[in-house]
Sequence to fold (382 residues):
Amino acid sequence: MTPARLLFVNHVSSMSGAEFVLAQVAQAFPGASAFLFEQGPLLAALEAHGLKGIVAKNGGGLAGIKRDKSLVRALPALAKLAGLVREIAGAARAHDVLYANSQKAFLLTALAATIVRRPLVWHLHDILNPEHFGGMQRRLQIGLANRVATRVVVPSRACADAFVEAGGRPDIVVVVPNGVSPPQAAPRPTREALGLPEGPLVGVFSRLAHWKGQHVLLKALHETPGIGAIVVGSALFGEEAYERQLRAMVTELGLGDRVTFLGQRNDVMRLMSAVDCVVHPSTLAEPFGLTLVEAMMARTSVVATDAGAAREILDDGLAGQLVTPGDAGSLAVALKAFFAAPQDFAQQRGHAALRAAERYSADRMRGDIRALVEQLAAGRSG
Ligand code: GLC
Fold:
């Protein structure tokens, strides 16, 4: 059987969680194409994996529309959107299966799919619940998914449940947990080599966004003297005001000598293995949380808020501590417990590392997605 000709579609080309996953998935499809609304690092990563990149002629500026306001703000850009749908449909004709990786990509690819009649997979990286999305957006996405998507791939049970709760068809949802490439076997880097301070040190790793909860960690640090933190990640989608707020908080809370902002980094696993504990402080339900798995693979202890997928990834708390979302006090208690006896958490770290290797490897994820795509392509030709 000739392999399915697959067309990936994603709106942004900057690297956030969903794009990291796409770059991993794409490695299973070296002859595939990727239609992106803009140039950028994702395009380069996909081309490096042997995919053919196609950049939209009509994509300019659309990637920047904020997700909660997208529909209203997109209205003046309707002509552009129609042009994009035509472009995606044009590209789709040379492919067997379409694969949309973001909400905006899904919206437009769904319209294109109805024109060219191709099976469409939507890899949904979000929790479609009211705390994350407005009613109009949820109704539109779910309505389109129910009518047009052949499968909706989600990374967690939490995402699947939210999709169904919002009215999505249970028969089209498939849970394919995200996967991460295990780190190279190498000695733990020293703090000195990485330019990190000595002493009790935690790290938070995600883009800077209010719901990712970095501010809650800063408040918790205020209650836990002696603990330092590195904040890794940058403001990607118009969240610069939040970054300024975080920096102001550091000054106000007198944390200047304990908190270091490192920006976006490519050596996340090395940094993770050099801190004592990775904190995942999201205030809203997390669709997945790649950081959790990366920390588990780096054999570093985890403290995460109990919202969304964290509980299933951390095996109900057996693979990491779970704390109350948005509650700095609860986080501070967990950090104090950890630093009082880090050696007591060794067994938890071992369990977490095994669990991550068994369930959350990139190879397993690629295998799952490849099987799904081949099945859809076979259905089309048969
Ligand atoms: C989004 C989600 C995050 C998930 C990632 C990959 O960024 O917010 O939870 O890990 O997508 O699926």
